[in-house]
Specification:
Chain lengths: ~110, ~120
């Protein structure tokens, strides 16, 4: 079974631009979560989607948004990029049916904002 | 709000020696606890998890962790470290539907293994 796939793996943007990151979950998984990882703040929860609905949201400004499609694939968007948005963005999937379990993480998309 | 503290930023252990990584959590209800490992350039891999029951849980790669409610701790242990264990380790507490929808992570402990 293929793992969680994130694209692109690396990207460079300039301040003020916007970026869209994509995540394909493990087949059959309906929940997709996004996390931001930086050296200073560590791993921080962005949001979680289940069956195309945002179920949880972290404490990030409105410039960070996401969505989930009917095939469970998810995208996150960051508008008006700031230098501080440089980070590794990790996507994780899980079955999402309410059972306890683990999150399966992708390798991440490393965003550099210049 | 829940929080996780990993007091050691870096730990160096000799290959073959035992390892204990510390984790303390703050959470009002019964916590769902996890240990993840991250190798350079990689995502996070689950080592083990605790939801309920036996307070000593076994994980992959020979790791184990013990949940101690009285100390709000969930320390990770391994009896004999291998060079391939060098990585960053994250403790996390979960909440939400099923206990895992949202994870709060500690800042991580970087494990260095000396020959």
């Amino acid at each position: 079974k293929a793992g969680v796939t994130q694209t692109p793996r690396y990207l460079i943007k300039t301040r003020g631009q916007q970026v869209t990151l994509s995540c394909s979950p493990i087949s059959g998984h309906r929940s997709v979560s996004w996390y931001q990882q930086t050296p200073g703040q560590g791993l921080q929860f962005l949001f979680e989607y289940f069956s195309e609905t945002q179920r949880n949201k972290g404490n990030f400004p409105g410039r960070f948004s996401g969505r989930q499609f009917s095939n469970s694939r998810s995208e996150m968007n960051v508008s008006t990029l700031e230098l501080g948005d440089s980070a590794l963005y990790l996507c994780a999937s899980s079955p999402g049916g309410g059972e306890t379990g683990e999150l399966f993480f992708g390798e991440g998309s490393r965003l550099t904002v210049l | 709000a829940q929080s996780v503290t990993q007091p050691d930023i870096h730990i160096t252990v000799s290959e073959g020696a035992s390892l204990e990584l510390r984790c303390n959590y703050s959470y009002g209800a019964t916590p769902y606890l996890f240990w993840y490992v991250q190798s350079p350039g990689q995502g996070l891999q689950l080592l083990l998890k605790y939801f309920s029951g036996d307070t000593l849980v076994q994980g992959i790669k020979g790791f184990e962790a013990e949940f101690k409610r009285s100390q709000s701790s969930f320390n990770l242990r391994k009896p004999s470290v291998h060079w391939s264990d060098a990585a960053e380790y994250f403790c996390a507490v979960g909440e939400g539907s099923g206990g895992y929808s949202t994870l709060t992570f500690g800042k991580g402990t970087m494990l260095l293994v000396s020959p």
